[in-house]
Amino acid sequence: MKQFKGALKALGMVVALGLGTHTAYAADNYPSKPIRLVVPYVPGGNLDITTRAITAAMGRYLKQSIVVENLGGAGGSIGAGNVARAAPDGYTVLSTTIVPLVVNPTLVPGTRVKLGDFDPVGMLGVVPSVLEVNAKNKHGIKDFKGFLDYAKAHPGDISVSHAGNGTTNHIAALLIEEAFGIQLNPIPYKGSAPALADLLGGQVDAMVDQLTSSQPQIENGSLIALVSTSAKRVPQLPNLPTVAEMGKPDFEMVTYSALMTPKGTPLAVRQVLNDALEKAVNDPEVQRQLQNVGAQVVPSTVDQAAQIFAKEEAKLQPLLTSGVLKPQ
What we know:
Elements: H1 2-28, E1 35-39, H2 46-62, E2 66-70, H3 77-84, E3 92-96, H4 99-107, E4 118-134, H5 144-153, E5 159-162, H6 168-180, E6 185-188, H7 192-201, E7 206-210, H8 211-219, E8 223-228, E9 254-262, H9 267-281, H10 284-292, E10 296-297, H11 302-322
Parallel strand pairs: 1-2, 1-3, 5-6, 5-7
Antiparallel strand pairs: 3-9, 4-7, 4-8, 4-9, 4-10
Helix pairs in contact: 2-9
């Protein structure tokens, strides 16, 4: 019996050693074929633009192709679910914001994919949102103080468009309401483009939008940016105050994006991706491309990416459990 137990123990050590060797071998030879990277939204949006700029550089450092596939639907949940079900071998990667993994499980009926279904690789970037009005708005609002004064005097009268229920822009509008004790009239759209079109056309009074979408219209004078939702002023609009500067020092609501792999992907493989990601976000040409669309890079380790998304999840939980955000 003792001999039998000893043989089992030895066999277990051999299996464990073999698995460890296999993982190391996989990492040493990774990637040996093209990597499929899913963006869970339609082409041309903030995440798509950011992802393509960074992953093109990553492919050069990995010496392997990264094939970007747009798989939209259900607020990002379809693409995220597709990646969650893939083999955890590093050859299927998700580019995502917090919305499909934390917000959608509460707001989108039938959504099962969640943050715990993924392992982090690293952060892509961060995009601030801005509260803006049409330069010819009917209320004569020219700055954030004027916006607050009008909102307090006319509760629920200011219509504010956003990219959709549960998006970071929608949440930013709700947090502004809560922070300043005002009542707005949020109006959801199916994406930033139609919401922005109606703001420019005068059908709505204001909008909370990611800078990547609205920067050209702000620069040409069609829109007036009133305030930024980032913790610090955005370099592209150095004269624009933040909500934090307007008396709410802890206020921040931005759109973080990150690369994720299916749960169970070996750390050694994710570290190879993280190393390439770090080189890519520090590439001067990549930084120039992102700056041109209002995004900022966020270099991070695997652990730091996990911490950032966990912090964002904790920030959103009170809104999700309070019923302020309604199911779609």
